[in-house]
Design goal:
By secondary structure, the protein is mostly helical. Helices cover 76% and strands 0% of the residues. It folds into 2 domains: 77 residues, NADH-ubiquinone/plastoquinone oxidoreductase chain 6, subunit NuoJ (Four Helix Bundle (Hemerythrin (Met), subunit A)), CATH 1.20.120; 54 residues, no CATH class.
Length: 167
């Protein structure tokens, strides 16, 4: 039954992901992106990571989508005449998705470890999801975390520059 539910959620996630790139209206693409984020949150719950599911919904399905819709409304992309969606982009995304599926099917990943050793159910029950995420973020992944913060700062400055109007 769990496998059937997984396949159902995966089908919805893939279909909503396809709708993100094929919808002509940017608002419809943003709504499809919200559905994809909710499907990812369901996957986190299925992996016994409720904290990550809550963060997925609060940060991505909440704040990021509000920001995207704000920018769409600010730039009037909903009323602009849009060119027809290129079929090369759609087929390229399908080919890329098939390649990822083949890679995930035939390649096996390495073991996930932390400073203390392998992450097991006992370690998660003893330490907790939040502490393990914080420990990994500020020890093993400190450089990518800082790079992401710099990219967010650049995006904020870019949004301010785009919205500044000449008087």
């Amino acid at each position: 039954m769990e496998l059937l539910f997984f396949y159902l959620v995966a089908l919805v996630a893939v279909l909503s992901g396809i709708m993100v790139i094929t919808c002509k209206s940017p608002i419809n693409s943003a709504i499809s992106l919200v559905m994809t984020f909710f499907c990812l949150a369901i996957f986190y719950v299925m992996l016994h990571a409720p904290f990550m599911a809550a963060i997925q919904i609060m940060v991505y399905a909440g704040a990021i989508i509000v920001l995207i819709i704000f920018v769409i409304m600010l730039l009037n992309l909903g009323t602009a005449v849009q060119a027809r969606t290129s079929h090369c982009i759609a087929w390229g995304s399908v080919v890329g998705a098939l390649m990822m599926l083949l890679a995930m099917t035939f390649l096996k990943g390495g073991e996930t470890t932390t400073v203390q050793g392998e992450i097991t159910k006992e370690v998660v029950a003893q330490v907790g999801h939040t502490e393990l995420i914080g420990q990994a973020m500020f020890t093993n992944f400190l450089l990518p975390f800082e790079i992401a913060s710099i990219l967010l700062l650049v995006a904020i400055v870019g949004a301010v520059v785009l919205t500044k109007r000449e008087v």
